[in-house]
Protein backbone atom coordinates (compact mmCIF):
# COMPACT_ATOMS: atom_id res chain seq x y z
CA UNK A 1 0.00 0.00 0.00
CA UNK A 2 1.31 3.38 -1.02
CA UNK A 3 2.97 5.26 1.85
CA UNK A 4 2.81 8.70 0.22
CA UNK A 5 -0.12 10.80 1.35
CA UNK A 6 -2.85 11.36 -1.20
CA UNK A 7 -4.43 14.59 -2.31
CA UNK A 8 -8.20 14.32 -1.98
CA UNK A 9 -10.44 16.95 -3.51
CA UNK A 10 -13.97 17.10 -2.12
CA UNK A 11 -16.20 19.42 -4.06
CA UNK A 12 -19.79 19.96 -5.07
CA UNK A 13 -22.43 22.66 -5.25
CA UNK A 14 -22.95 25.02 -2.33
CA UNK A 15 -25.30 23.46 0.22
CA UNK A 16 -24.52 19.78 -0.39
CA UNK A 17 -22.98 19.47 3.08
CA UNK A 18 -19.26 19.38 2.26
CA UNK A 19 -18.35 20.99 5.58
CA UNK A 20 -20.41 18.62 7.73
CA UNK A 21 -19.13 15.56 5.85
CA UNK A 22 -15.54 16.75 6.29
CA UNK A 23 -15.91 17.31 10.02
CA UNK A 24 -17.14 13.73 10.52
CA UNK A 25 -14.49 12.35 8.19
CA UNK A 26 -11.69 14.05 10.15
CA UNK A 27 -13.18 12.93 13.47
CA UNK A 28 -13.01 9.31 12.30
CA UNK A 29 -9.69 9.37 10.42
CA UNK A 30 -6.62 10.73 12.18
CA UNK A 31 -4.42 10.37 9.09
CA UNK A 32 -6.30 12.94 7.01
CA UNK A 33 -5.86 16.64 7.39
CA UNK A 34 -7.40 19.76 5.96
CA UNK A 35 -5.63 21.95 3.51
CA UNK A 36 -6.32 25.42 4.88
CA UNK A 37 -7.18 27.82 2.06
CA UNK A 38 -6.26 31.45 1.75
CA UNK A 39 -8.99 34.01 1.14
CA UNK A 40 -9.53 37.73 0.90
CA UNK A 41 -13.08 37.53 2.26
CA UNK A 42 -13.67 38.83 5.78
CA UNK A 43 -13.81 36.31 8.64
CA UNK A 44 -17.30 35.28 9.79
CA UNK A 45 -17.99 35.31 13.53
CA UNK A 46 -16.07 32.47 15.21
CA UNK A 47 -13.65 31.92 12.32
CA UNK A 48 -9.96 31.98 13.15
CA UNK A 49 -6.99 32.87 10.96
CA UNK A 50 -5.09 29.67 10.01
CA UNK A 51 -7.94 27.39 11.08
CA UNK A 52 -10.88 27.99 8.70
CA UNK A 53 -8.82 30.13 6.31
CA UNK A 54 -5.69 32.19 6.07
CA UNK A 55 -7.29 35.63 5.87
CA UNK A 56 -5.10 37.77 3.65
CA UNK A 57 -5.33 41.12 1.88
CA UNK A 58 -5.98 41.46 -1.82
CA UNK A 59 -2.36 42.54 -2.37
CA UNK A 60 -0.99 39.56 -0.47
CA UNK A 61 -3.21 37.17 -2.44
CA UNK A 62 -2.24 38.60 -5.82
CA UNK A 63 1.38 38.29 -4.79
CA UNK A 64 0.88 34.55 -4.10
CA UNK A 65 -0.63 34.20 -7.58
CA UNK A 66 2.32 35.80 -9.35
CA UNK A 67 4.80 33.79 -7.21
CA UNK A 68 3.04 30.55 -8.28
CA UNK A 69 2.43 29.58 -4.67
CA UNK A 70 -1.15 28.42 -5.20
CA UNK A 71 -2.41 25.02 -6.41
CA UNK A 72 -5.58 26.78 -7.55
CA UNK A 73 -7.32 30.05 -6.98
CA UNK A 74 -10.58 31.61 -7.99
CA UNK A 75 -12.57 34.75 -7.58
CA UNK A 76 -16.00 33.88 -6.17
CA UNK A 77 -18.60 36.57 -5.61
CA UNK A 78 -15.82 39.19 -5.60
CA UNK A 79 -13.50 37.44 -3.13
CA UNK A 80 -10.34 35.46 -3.82
CA UNK A 81 -10.02 31.88 -2.57
CA UNK A 82 -6.90 29.73 -3.12
CA UNK A 83 -4.88 26.73 -1.99
CA UNK A 84 -1.26 27.26 -0.85
CA UNK A 85 0.93 24.54 -2.37
CA UNK A 86 3.97 24.24 -0.09
CA UNK A 87 2.12 22.96 2.98
CA UNK A 88 0.31 20.26 0.97
CA UNK A 89 3.53 18.83 -0.42
CA UNK A 90 5.14 18.76 3.04
CA UNK A 91 2.24 16.82 4.54
CA UNK A 92 1.99 14.31 1.67
CA UNK A 93 5.71 13.55 1.90
CA UNK A 94 5.10 12.65 5.56
CA UNK A 95 2.43 10.13 4.50
CA UNK A 96 -0.49 12.31 5.54
CA UNK A 97 -3.55 12.54 3.28
CA UNK A 98 -4.53 16.10 2.52
CA UNK A 99 -8.13 17.00 1.79
CA UNK A 100 -9.17 20.10 -0.12
CA UNK A 101 -12.76 21.11 0.40
CA UNK A 102 -13.23 23.52 -2.48
CA UNK A 103 -15.87 24.84 -4.84
CA UNK A 104 -16.28 23.36 -8.30
CA UNK A 105 -14.44 26.21 -10.03
CA UNK A 106 -11.38 25.58 -7.84
CA UNK A 107 -11.58 21.81 -8.33
CA UNK A 108 -11.48 22.18 -12.13
CA UNK A 109 -8.27 24.15 -11.78
CA UNK A 110 -6.74 21.48 -9.51
CA UNK A 111 -7.58 18.79 -12.11
CA UNK A 112 -5.24 20.49 -14.53
CA UNK A 113 -2.34 20.65 -12.06
CA UNK A 114 -2.72 17.53 -9.89
CA UNK A 115 -3.27 14.50 -12.09
CA UNK A 116 -2.78 12.15 -9.12
CA UNK A 117 -5.53 13.83 -7.08
CA UNK A 118 -8.61 11.89 -6.02
CA UNK A 119 -11.62 13.93 -7.11
CA UNK A 120 -14.84 13.31 -5.20
CA UNK A 121 -18.05 15.13 -6.11
CA UNK A 122 -20.64 15.43 -3.36
CA UNK A 123 -24.21 15.51 -4.65
CA UNK A 124 -27.43 16.47 -2.88
CA UNK A 125 -30.09 13.72 -2.90
CA UNK A 126 -32.27 16.03 -5.02
CA UNK A 127 -32.59 19.67 -6.09
CA UNK A 128 -35.60 20.09 -3.79
CA UNK A 129 -33.50 18.93 -0.84
CA UNK A 130 -30.66 21.25 -1.85
CA UNK A 131 -33.01 24.24 -1.92
CA UNK A 132 -34.28 23.31 1.54
CA UNK A 133 -30.73 23.14 2.89
CA UNK A 134 -29.69 26.49 1.42
CA UNK A 135 -32.83 28.13 2.82
CA UNK A 136 -32.30 26.38 6.16
CA UNK A 137 -29.05 28.23 6.75
CA UNK A 138 -31.15 31.35 7.19
CA UNK A 139 -28.16 33.53 6.36
CA UNK A 140 -28.90 34.19 2.70
CA UNK A 141 -31.32 36.51 0.94
CA UNK A 142 -33.90 35.13 -1.50
CA UNK A 143 -31.82 36.52 -4.35
CA UNK A 144 -28.68 34.72 -3.18
CA UNK A 145 -30.63 31.48 -2.72
CA UNK A 146 -31.95 31.68 -6.28
CA UNK A 147 -28.43 32.47 -7.57
CA UNK A 148 -26.91 29.51 -5.70
CA UNK A 149 -29.58 27.08 -6.85
CA UNK A 150 -29.15 28.13 -10.49
CA UNK A 151 -25.39 27.77 -10.07
CA UNK A 152 -25.86 24.33 -8.46
CA UNK A 153 -27.76 23.05 -11.49
CA UNK A 154 -24.87 24.08 -13.75
CA UNK A 155 -22.30 22.70 -11.31
CA UNK A 156 -23.91 19.26 -11.04
CA UNK A 157 -23.09 18.68 -14.72
CA UNK A 158 -19.40 19.08 -13.80
CA UNK A 159 -19.63 15.92 -11.67
CA UNK A 160 -18.85 13.85 -14.75
CA UNK A 161 -15.22 15.07 -14.63
CA UNK A 162 -14.63 13.68 -11.13
CA UNK A 163 -13.41 10.19 -10.22
CA UNK A 164 -16.21 9.52 -7.75
CA UNK A 165 -19.79 10.62 -7.08
CA UNK A 166 -21.07 10.47 -3.51
CA UNK A 167 -24.71 11.33 -2.76
CA UNK A 168 -25.08 13.02 0.62
CA UNK A 169 -28.42 11.52 1.54
CA UNK A 170 -27.28 10.15 4.87
CA UNK A 171 -24.14 11.66 6.36
CA UNK A 172 -22.82 8.41 7.89
CA UNK A 173 -23.19 6.60 4.57
CA UNK A 174 -21.46 9.43 2.71
CA UNK A 175 -18.55 9.42 5.18
CA UNK A 176 -18.29 5.61 4.97
CA UNK A 177 -18.11 5.82 1.17
CA UNK A 178 -15.47 8.56 1.20
CA UNK A 179 -13.41 6.61 3.77
CA UNK A 180 -13.58 3.55 1.50
CA UNK A 181 -12.54 5.63 -1.53
CA UNK A 182 -9.50 6.97 0.34
CA UNK A 183 -8.39 3.49 1.43
CA UNK A 184 -9.07 1.93 -1.98
CA UNK A 185 -7.04 4.60 -3.76
CA UNK A 186 -4.03 3.69 -1.60
CA UNK A 187 -4.19 0.26 -3.27
CA UNK A 188 -4.42 1.61 -6.85
CA UNK A 189 -1.83 -0.10 -9.02
CA UNK A 190 -0.61 3.22 -10.41
CA UNK A 191 0.37 4.28 -6.88
CA UNK A 192 2.09 0.97 -6.06
CA UNK A 193 4.17 -0.12 -9.04
CA UNK A 194 7.27 -0.10 -6.78
CA UNK A 195 5.85 -3.06 -4.80
CA UNK A 196 5.96 -5.24 -7.92
CA UNK A 197 9.47 -4.16 -8.77
CA UNK A 198 10.64 -4.83 -5.23
CA UNK A 199 9.27 -8.39 -5.09
CA UNK A 200 10.51 -9.25 -8.59
CA UNK A 201 14.10 -8.34 -7.74
CA UNK A 202 14.10 -10.12 -4.38
CA UNK A 203 16.83 -12.75 -3.89
CA UNK A 204 15.56 -16.12 -2.67
CA UNK B 1 -24.38 4.68 -5.70
CA UNK B 2 -24.64 2.18 -8.51
CA UNK B 3 -27.27 -0.50 -7.89
CA UNK B 4 -25.95 -2.97 -10.47
CA UNK B 5 -23.76 -5.67 -9.01
CA UNK B 6 -20.06 -5.45 -9.86
CA UNK B 7 -17.80 -8.11 -11.27
CA UNK B 8 -14.73 -8.42 -9.05
CA UNK B 9 -11.75 -10.43 -10.20
CA UNK B 10 -9.36 -11.53 -7.47
CA UNK B 11 -6.23 -13.10 -8.81
CA UNK B 12 -2.57 -13.57 -8.02
CA UNK B 13 0.11 -16.25 -7.99
CA UNK B 14 -0.61 -19.64 -6.46
CA UNK B 15 -0.01 -19.53 -2.69
CA UNK B 16 -0.80 -15.86 -2.04
CA UNK B 17 -3.87 -16.82 -0.02
CA UNK B 18 -6.69 -16.00 -2.44
CA UNK B 19 -8.94 -18.71 -1.00
CA UNK B 20 -8.49 -17.66 2.64
CA UNK B 21 -9.01 -14.00 1.81
CA UNK B 22 -12.20 -14.83 -0.09
CA UNK B 23 -13.64 -16.92 2.74
CA UNK B 24 -13.23 -14.04 5.18
CA UNK B 25 -14.54 -11.52 2.65
CA UNK B 26 -17.72 -13.53 2.10
CA UNK B 27 -18.21 -14.06 5.84
CA UNK B 28 -18.18 -10.28 6.34
CA UNK B 29 -20.13 -9.18 3.24
CA UNK B 30 -23.47 -10.78 2.53
CA UNK B 31 -23.90 -8.94 -0.78
CA UNK B 32 -20.95 -10.64 -2.50
CA UNK B 33 -21.10 -14.09 -3.94
CA UNK B 34 -18.71 -16.50 -5.57
CA UNK B 35 -18.77 -17.29 -9.22
CA UNK B 36 -18.44 -21.05 -9.23
CA UNK B 37 -16.04 -22.17 -11.95
CA UNK B 38 -16.29 -25.21 -14.13
CA UNK B 39 -13.33 -27.58 -14.29
CA UNK B 40 -12.31 -30.92 -15.73
CA UNK B 41 -9.94 -31.70 -12.86
CA UNK B 42 -11.00 -34.38 -10.38
CA UNK B 43 -12.59 -33.28 -7.08
CA UNK B 44 -10.24 -33.20 -4.07
CA UNK B 45 -11.50 -34.81 -0.86
CA UNK B 46 -14.28 -32.70 0.64
CA UNK B 47 -15.02 -30.77 -2.54
CA UNK B 48 -18.60 -30.75 -3.74
CA UNK B 49 -20.00 -30.34 -7.25
CA UNK B 50 -21.57 -26.86 -7.62
CA UNK B 51 -19.87 -25.51 -4.47
CA UNK B 52 -16.11 -25.41 -5.11
CA UNK B 53 -16.47 -26.17 -8.83
CA UNK B 54 -18.80 -27.59 -11.39
CA UNK B 55 -16.92 -30.79 -12.16
CA UNK B 56 -17.50 -31.57 -15.82
CA UNK B 57 -16.05 -33.91 -18.41
CA UNK B 58 -13.62 -32.78 -21.09
CA UNK B 59 -16.34 -33.15 -23.72
CA UNK B 60 -18.81 -31.08 -21.74
CA UNK B 61 -16.21 -28.35 -21.18
CA UNK B 62 -15.22 -28.16 -24.84
CA UNK B 63 -18.89 -27.89 -25.69
CA UNK B 64 -19.21 -24.84 -23.39
CA UNK B 65 -16.24 -23.27 -25.19
CA UNK B 66 -17.75 -23.68 -28.64
CA UNK B 67 -21.17 -22.46 -27.40
CA UNK B 68 -19.50 -19.27 -26.07
CA UNK B 69 -20.85 -19.95 -22.57
CA UNK B 70 -17.62 -19.06 -20.74
CA UNK B 71 -16.34 -15.65 -19.68
CA UNK B 72 -12.85 -17.12 -19.71
CA UNK B 73 -11.26 -20.51 -19.75
CA UNK B 74 -7.76 -21.88 -19.55
CA UNK B 75 -5.88 -25.13 -19.55
CA UNK B 76 -3.69 -25.28 -16.44
CA UNK B 77 -1.41 -28.25 -15.85
CA UNK B 78 -3.53 -30.31 -18.25
CA UNK B 79 -6.95 -29.46 -16.77
CA UNK B 80 -9.57 -27.04 -18.06
CA UNK B 81 -10.87 -24.26 -15.79
CA UNK B 82 -13.52 -21.75 -16.86
CA UNK B 83 -16.18 -19.28 -15.77
CA UNK B 84 -19.81 -19.81 -16.88
CA UNK B 85 -21.26 -16.48 -18.01
CA UNK B 86 -25.05 -16.80 -17.63
CA UNK B 87 -25.10 -17.11 -13.83
CA UNK B 88 -22.86 -14.04 -13.39
CA UNK B 89 -25.12 -11.82 -15.48
CA UNK B 90 -28.21 -12.98 -13.58
CA UNK B 91 -26.67 -12.16 -10.19
CA UNK B 92 -25.34 -8.74 -11.26
CA UNK B 93 -28.73 -7.72 -12.60
CA UNK B 94 -30.11 -8.47 -9.12
CA UNK B 95 -27.57 -6.06 -7.59
CA UNK B 96 -25.32 -8.81 -6.24
CA UNK B 97 -21.54 -8.44 -6.56
CA UNK B 98 -19.91 -11.47 -8.12
CA UNK B 99 -16.35 -12.39 -7.29
CA UNK B 100 -14.16 -14.52 -9.51
CA UNK B 101 -11.20 -16.07 -7.78
CA UNK B 102 -9.12 -17.12 -10.75
CA UNK B 103 -5.52 -17.64 -11.79
CA UNK B 104 -3.62 -14.93 -13.64
CA UNK B 105 -4.03 -16.57 -17.04
CA UNK B 106 -7.82 -16.56 -16.61
CA UNK B 107 -7.83 -12.99 -15.35
CA UNK B 108 -6.00 -11.76 -18.45
CA UNK B 109 -8.72 -13.32 -20.59
CA UNK B 110 -11.46 -11.66 -18.51
CA UNK B 111 -9.76 -8.26 -18.96
CA UNK B 112 -10.40 -8.51 -22.68
CA UNK B 113 -14.08 -9.36 -22.26
CA UNK B 114 -15.20 -7.46 -19.14
CA UNK B 115 -14.00 -3.87 -19.32
CA UNK B 116 -16.12 -2.90 -16.31
CA UNK B 117 -14.57 -5.57 -14.08
CA UNK B 118 -12.65 -4.61 -10.96
CA UNK B 119 -9.30 -6.35 -11.16
CA UNK B 120 -7.53 -6.94 -7.85
CA UNK B 121 -4.11 -8.59 -7.72
CA UNK B 122 -3.20 -10.28 -4.46
CA UNK B 123 0.53 -10.22 -3.73
CA UNK B 124 2.54 -12.18 -1.19
CA UNK B 125 4.53 -9.99 1.24
CA UNK B 126 7.73 -11.44 -0.26
CA UNK B 127 8.94 -14.34 -2.41
CA UNK B 128 10.47 -15.98 0.65
CA UNK B 129 7.08 -15.92 2.37
CA UNK B 130 5.38 -17.28 -0.75
CA UNK B 131 7.80 -20.21 -0.88
CA UNK B 132 7.09 -20.93 2.78
CA UNK B 133 3.33 -20.94 2.15
CA UNK B 134 3.53 -23.26 -0.86
CA UNK B 135 5.76 -25.67 1.10
CA UNK B 136 3.44 -25.39 4.10
CA UNK B 137 0.54 -26.96 2.22
CA UNK B 138 2.51 -30.20 2.34
CA UNK B 139 0.62 -31.49 -0.69
CA UNK B 140 3.14 -30.65 -3.40
CA UNK B 141 6.35 -32.32 -4.53
CA UNK B 142 9.63 -30.38 -4.59
CA UNK B 143 9.39 -30.21 -8.37
CA UNK B 144 5.89 -28.71 -8.27
CA UNK B 145 6.97 -26.17 -5.62
CA UNK B 146 9.87 -25.03 -7.80
CA UNK B 147 7.58 -24.83 -10.85
CA UNK B 148 5.00 -22.77 -8.96
CA UNK B 149 7.59 -20.39 -7.53
CA UNK B 150 9.12 -19.79 -10.96
CA UNK B 151 5.62 -19.22 -12.34
CA UNK B 152 4.84 -16.82 -9.47
CA UNK B 153 7.83 -14.63 -10.33
CA UNK B 154 6.55 -14.30 -13.91
CA UNK B 155 2.98 -13.78 -12.74
CA UNK B 156 3.85 -10.96 -10.33
CA UNK B 157 4.88 -8.84 -13.31
CA UNK B 158 1.29 -9.15 -14.58
CA UNK B 159 0.11 -7.20 -11.53
CA UNK B 160 0.70 -3.98 -13.45
CA UNK B 161 -2.36 -4.71 -15.63
CA UNK B 162 -4.74 -4.82 -12.66
CA UNK B 163 -6.65 -1.90 -11.12
CA UNK B 164 -5.53 -2.63 -7.58
CA UNK B 165 -2.65 -4.31 -5.77
CA UNK B 166 -3.31 -5.77 -2.33
CA UNK B 167 -0.45 -7.26 -0.32
CA UNK B 168 -1.60 -10.22 1.77
CA UNK B 169 0.68 -9.63 4.73
CA UNK B 170 -2.10 -9.61 7.30
CA UNK B 171 -5.38 -11.24 6.28
CA UNK B 172 -7.63 -8.77 8.13
CA UNK B 173 -5.89 -5.81 6.51
CA UNK B 174 -6.14 -7.42 3.06
CA UNK B 175 -9.87 -8.10 3.53
CA UNK B 176 -10.42 -4.54 4.81
CA UNK B 177 -8.69 -3.15 1.71
CA UNK B 178 -10.68 -5.34 -0.69
CA UNK B 179 -13.93 -4.39 1.08
CA UNK B 180 -13.02 -0.71 0.66
CA UNK B 181 -12.20 -1.23 -3.02
CA UNK B 182 -15.59 -2.87 -3.63
CA UNK B 183 -17.49 -0.04 -1.91
CA UNK B 184 -15.39 2.69 -3.55
CA UNK B 185 -15.95 1.24 -7.02
CA UNK B 186 -19.71 1.51 -6.48
CA UNK B 187 -19.15 5.29 -6.28
CA UNK B 188 -17.04 5.52 -9.48
CA UNK B 189 -18.40 8.25 -11.72
CA UNK B 190 -18.38 5.95 -14.74
CA UNK B 191 -20.86 3.65 -12.95
CA UNK B 192 -23.13 6.51 -11.79
CA UNK B 193 -23.59 8.96 -14.66
CA UNK B 194 -27.36 8.37 -14.46
CA UNK B 195 -27.44 10.08 -11.02
CA UNK B 196 -26.25 13.35 -12.57
CA UNK B 197 -28.74 13.13 -15.39
CA UNK B 198 -31.57 12.41 -12.98
CA UNK B 199 -30.87 15.42 -10.72
CA UNK B 200 -30.32 17.77 -13.66
CA UNK B 201 -33.70 17.03 -15.15
CA UNK B 202 -35.59 17.27 -11.86
CA UNK B 203 -38.49 19.75 -11.73
CA UNK B 204 -38.38 22.11 -8.77
From TrEMBL, chains A, B:
Enzyme Commission number(s): 2.7.4.8
Superkingdom, natural source: Bacteria
Catalytic activity annotation: GMP + ATP = GDP + ADP
Amino-acid positions noted as binding ATP in the UniProt annotation, renumbered to this chain: 12-19
Pfam families in the record: Guanylate_kin (PF00625)
Keywords noted in UniProt: ATP-binding, Cytoplasm, Kinase, Nucleotide-binding, Transferase
GO molecular function terms attached to this record: ATP binding; GMP kinase activity
GO cellular component: cytosol
Localization of this protein: Cytoplasm
Enzyme class per UniProt: transferase
The Guanylate kinase-like domain, residue ranges: 5-183
InterPro entries per record: GK/Ca_channel_bsu, Guanylate_kin-like_dom, Guanylate_kinase, Guanylate_kinase_CS, P-loop_NTPase
Primary localisation category: cytoplasm
Keyword Transcription: no
HAMAP family: Guanylate_kinase (MF_00328)
UniProt family annotation: Belongs to the guanylate kinase family.
Function description: Essential for recycling GMP and indirectly, cGMP.
Record-linked PANTHER family: GUANYLATE KINASE (PTHR23117:SF13), GUANYLATE KINASE-RELATED (PTHR23117)
Protein name: Guanylate kinase
Species of the source: Pectinatus brassicae
Species lineage: Bacteria, Bacillati, Bacillota, Negativicutes, Selenomonadales
